[in-house]
């Protein structure tokens, strides 16, 4: 399933661009959003203190160490299982440059963190969420490469659903931990999807070029 060649992929690209631009303009025009007040109250009310250890784990999987470990594990998997060097390069490119883009956006927009108790340590600015953006990038790309190797349609859908829930929980963890506004998360997801789309498109182009070049050398 070439999910990034479907009409749905382009639809979500357009929606992601609209979501990111909407919250970008909304945040620049005022620090307080009704969207943030409603969903902050909703998620903090939905998940009690008993769930905090679980969300701390999800939060850890989205920090630098967690992302680094998960990236390394999947790179080793691609190397040992498939020798897919183009995919390995695509993941490193997407995650590393995506992280730099996120830091640049945070500095350019300059939104402070929520003025409430933070249940985990934070040092950077708030918009867009790095956990949401990098989580979307890393785990969507991992799901993409896994899905491309699966034969069963139900297995592909199951992988996509698990990845979606995983990414969503990672974003929710930042709201429950009190370190992000919901609009930070929504914008992070949107920016992450846009960057995933671009990265996968570049990967497809480069892979096609390398294969064509390899075929021409073998035919010569």
Model description:
- The protein has 220 residues and is mostly helical.
- It has one domain.
- It has helices spanning 7-29, 34-46, 52-61, 64-81, 85-109, 130-149, 153-176, 182-219.
- The longest helix is centred in the C-terminal third of the chain and has 38 residues, at 182-219.
- The chain is globular.
- It starts with 6 loop residues before the first helix and ends with a helix.
- InterPro entries: PAP2/HPO, PAP2/HPO_sf.
What is the element layout, followed by pairings?
Elements (H helix, E strand, L loop, with lengths): L6 H23 L4 H13 L5 H10 L2 H18 L3 H25 L20 H20 L3 H24 L5 H38 L1
Observed structural traits:
single chain; 220 residues; mainly alpha; 8 helices; Phosphatidic acid phosphatase type 2/haloperoxidase domain-containing protein; PAP2/HPO; PAP2/HPO_sf; transmembrane; transmembrane helix
Q: N- to C-terminal separation?
A: 33 Å
Please indicate the percent range of residues in DSSP E strands (runs of 2 or more).
under 5%
Helix content: over 70%
Structural class: mainly alpha
Number of strands: 0
Helical element count?
A: 8
| Main sheet attributes: strand count, strand direction, barrel closure | none
How many domains, in number, for the residues? Answer: 1
How much is the radius of gyration in Å?
A: 19 Å
SSE ordering:
HHHHHHHH
Indicate the overall shape. Answer: globular
What's the quick description here?
The chain is mostly helical and 220 residues long.
């Amino acid at each position: 399933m070439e999910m990034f060649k479907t009409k749905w992929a382009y639809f979500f690209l357009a929606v992601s661009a609209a979501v990111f631009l909407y919250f970008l303009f909304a945040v620049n025009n005022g620090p307080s959003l009704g969207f943030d007040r409603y969903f902050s109250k909703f998620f903090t009310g939905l998940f009690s203190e008993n769930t905090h250890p679980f969300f701390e784990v999800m939060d850890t999987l989205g920090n630098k160490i967690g992302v680094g470990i998960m990236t390394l594990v999947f790179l080793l998997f691609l190397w040992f299982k498939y020798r897919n060097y183009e995919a390995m390069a695509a993941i490193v490119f997407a995650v590393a440059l995506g992280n730099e883009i996120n830091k640049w956006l945070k500095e350019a927009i300059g939104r402070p963190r929520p003025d409430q108790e933070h249940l985990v340590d934070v040092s950077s600015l708030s918009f867009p969420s790095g956990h949401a953006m990098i989580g979307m990038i890393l785990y969507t790309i991992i799901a993409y490469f896994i899905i491309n190797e699966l034969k069963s349609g139900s297995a592909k859908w199951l992988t996509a659903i698990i990845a979606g829930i995983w990414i969503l929980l990672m974003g929710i963890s930042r709201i429950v931990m009190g370190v992000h506004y919901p609009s930070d998360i929504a914008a992070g997801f949107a920016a992450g999807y846009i960057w995933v789309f671009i990265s996968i498109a570049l990967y497809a182009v480069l892979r096609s070029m390398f294969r064509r070049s390899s075929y021409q050398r073998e035919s010569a």
